[in-house]
Write a structure and sequence with these properties.
The protein has helices at 9-21, 38-49, 56-63, 71-83, 94-101, 111-126, 140-145, 156-166, 169-173, 177-183, 189-199, 207-217, 240-255, 257-263, 281-292, 310-323, 334-338, 344-356, 379-382, 398-409, 421-427, 433-453, 460-480, and strands at 27-31, 52-54, 88-91, 129-134, 147-150, 270-274, 296-299, 327-331, 365-371, 389-392. With 497 residues, it is α/β, with parallel strands linked by helices. The protein has 4 domains: 9-150, Rossmann fold (3-Layer(aba) Sandwich), CATH 3.40.50; 156-217; 225-392, 3-Layer(aba) Sandwich (Rossmann fold); 399-480, Orthogonal Bundle (Helicase, Ruva Protein, domain 3), CATH 1.10.8.
Length: 497
Amino acid sequence: MHKTRVLTPVQQNAADQILAACRPGNIISLESEPGHGRTTVLEYVHAAVGGEFLGMRQFMESLSGHAPTAIEEAFLEMLDRAAAEHEIIFVDDLHLISAVVDARDYPRSYLLDAAVTAVLAEAGVRGRTLIFGVEDGAPFPIERRAYIWKIADFTPEDYRCLCERYLSADAAARLDYARIHRFAPELSAWQLKNACAWLGRRTELGTDCFVGYLQEHNMASNVKIEEVQRVDLNDLKGADELIRALESKIALPFENDELARRLQLRPKRGVLLAGPPGTGKTTIGRALAHRLKSKFFLIDGTMIAGTEGFYCGIREVFEAAKKNAPSVIFIDDADVIFENNEDRGLYRYLLTMLDGLESTSAGRVCVMMTAMNASSLPQALVRSGRVELWLETRLPDLEARADILRARLAPLPAPLGTADIERIARASRNLTGADLKAVVEDAKLQYAQDLKSGREYRPVEEYFIEAIETVRQNQAEFARRRPCRLPGAVTMGFLGE
C-alpha cells in the first residue's frame, strides 16, 4: 500500500539544505549512495521551487539529434534549451554521463569538463540556479564551484519512515526498527520497499520475519552456502577451549542482538587460527559459513594476485562485508600468501583494509585468517591491534581421536560400526582429524573390495591399522618430495582441508 510521499529525516535534512542554498547564480550538488533517495529529494525541491527537471530520458532525447559520440554537444544543448526558459534547472544522474566519457576507450577525454565549464559560466552570467544529482563525486568544474551536500546514512527512524510508506499501520507498528538497523545498517530504500512489498501480505508480520527475509534476499555473502559441507563447531573434538573462545568472542556479538546492544559488544577485529594441516582450521570456516550465512565472506583461490581485477575483488569483499556487518571475512592459508614475500602489494593493501576496520562503520567486521606456520606471516600483519585473538588448533589427543572415530563409525553397519575404537585410536597417534577421515574412508574401501571379491575378510580392526600405515607412508613421501608451487599463484583453500 503506497502512502503519501514524505521524506525520511536524513532526506529532509538534505532537502532543507538545498532549499536554503537555492539562490540565483548558485551551483548545488547533491550526492548519495544508490537507493538513498537522491531523486526523491530533488523532486521534492523541484515541487517547492519550480524550474526544469532534466534526467536521463531528456538527455537521451537530446542525444538522438546528434552523432552517438556527440555526448558533450547533446548535454550542452539540453542545458542551453532549459536555461532559456527557466531560472532553476535540475540535472539528475549526471554520474551516468560522466561514466561514459570517463571510459577507457572514449576518444574525447575531458571534453565534458569543457562543456560543464561553459554551462556554469553561462548560468552565472544569466543568474540561473543549477542543481545536480550524482552518486559520488561530480565533475571537477562542479565540485570546484558548487555547494555540496550528501544524503547521510539511514538511521532506524529513516527505516521506520520508509517502511510506513508501504506497510499497513498495524504491520509497521509491530517492527523493531532499531533491531533491523543493527542487523542491516546499510539497506537502501529499494531494498526496504521490496521487503515491505513481499512481506506486507503476511497477517502476522514481525521483526524476526523481517530480519529473516533480509538475510535470505538482501545480505550478500560471496559463498554459495549450499556448496559448503555442513558442519558444526561441536564437530571439532578435543577443542573445547577453542570453541568457547569462538562462541564468546565471535558468535555471541553476532547472534545475541540484545546483549550486543546493551553491552556494546563487537566481535574481535582480527583472529588468527594457527595449527598443523588437518587440525580443523577450515572446518571452523565451514561451521561459521553455515552459522552466519549471509554474514560470511571468503577470500579464496579464484582471486589471483597480480591479475587486473585482483585488488578490486579484495576491495569488493571488504566493502560487502562492511555493508553486511556484523560479518566475518575468512582468509584461508594466509601464510601461503605471504611465505615468499613476493607480493608486497597485497600485504600493504591488506594492512590498509585491516586498519580501516577500526572505523565506526566497519567496527563489526571480523577478519579471520588461518595459517599452518604463523612465523611466515609478516610481523606488521599480526602485531597487536590488528590481530586481537590468537587461537591454536592442535593434533587431537587419544580421547579426541576416539571421539572422532566414534562419530564416523556410528552410522556404519557391523562389523565396521562395531570395530574396537580404542585400539584404532591408540594406533593413530599424531594423526589429524583429516587424517582420521581418510583412514575410515580407506578402510571402508578395502573391506568392500574383500566382500566383492569373495575373499575371507580379516578382523575389521586390521583394515583400519593398514589404512593408518598408508596415511603415514603418504606423509613421509610428501615430506621427501614436496611439490613445487606454480609461480605467481596464490593458493587458498575453498573451505576444504
